[in-house]
Amino acid sequence: MTAHQFIFKQNTATQQDVLRHFTQCDRKFFTQLQQRVDIGSYIEKILSAAERFEIWDGSELKGLLAAYCNCEQGQNVFITNLSVTLDSQRKGLASQLLRRCILHAEKEAYAGIELQVNVTNDAAYQCYMLHGFRETHISEHDRTMYLSLGVPIV
């Protein structure tokens, strides 16, 4: 067994890296993603419009958080994706990615961070709750969650 040398990067993953990452995540995650979006178009949108917080182990993308931060200061960031490959789960990578996103949003003076999580994904829900997110809405398939950063909305 080799020791992992996780390296944090930002905005470096290519389309091929992200696609490979998605396919190495939990099968249920990938299936649900495919049912909601065209994977190729979604990856293109992430690469062109999202701030990407990445965790790498060598040349493998192990964790990815993509957040739309392309709004004005004082507004909300929207996390569109937080995923960790199946072989790297339960190592705190999702929490580390969330912390980096939260610090970035605070530094840039955003009001808060919003996201949606599938109602069946209890592990992700608990992770978000531990980081201070609160449920604001629930639908048949998703929970909307929000973290206030204490910046007044302009």
UniProtKB/TrEMBL annotation:
UniProt key word Coiled coil: no
Gene3D superfamilies: 3.40.630.30
UniProt keyword list: Transferase
N-acetyltransferase domain mapped to chain residues: 17-150
Record bears the keyword Flavoprotein: no
Molecular function in Gene Ontology: acyltransferase activity, transferring groups other than amino-acyl groups
InterPro entries noted in UniProt: Acyl_CoA_acyltransferase, GNAT_dom
Pfam families, per database record: Acetyltransf_1
Record-given protein name: GNAT family N-acetyltransferase
